[in-house]
Write a structure and sequence with these properties.
Layout (H helix, E strand, L loop, with lengths): L1 H18 L6 H22 L38
Helix pairs in contact: 1-2
Length: about 80
């Protein structure tokens, strides 16, 4: 989510520069194009994730289909305690 937020902030700042009439605006087009290309690459990368190897996202932003933020997390039953190491 940080990547998307940062990209939006960059685009907002670029728009501000654009409407204020600064010179060398071709760099803004380059920035916009690179952000859009990165968005596509990121989306394709996310498609490669194993959606059944997950941790429940309690904010319900990144859960696989059919998994709800209030569902029981099977990892909660794991007796592993990293303090034992």
């Amino acid at each position: 989510m940080r990547l998307r937020k940062s990209a939006r902030e960059l685009l907002k700042k670029a728009h501000g520069i654009d409407i204020r009439g600064y010179k060398d605006l071709e760099y803004l087009d380059l920035l916009r194009n690179e952000i859009d290309e990165s968005r596509i690459l990121f989306a394709e990368w996310v498609k490669t994730f194993d959606c059944w190897n997950y941790m429940i996202d309690r904010w319900d932003l990144l859960n696989p289909p059919g998994i709800n933020y209030v569902d029981h997390d099977p990892n909660d039953d794991n007796p592993f305690n990293n303090k034992d190491m």
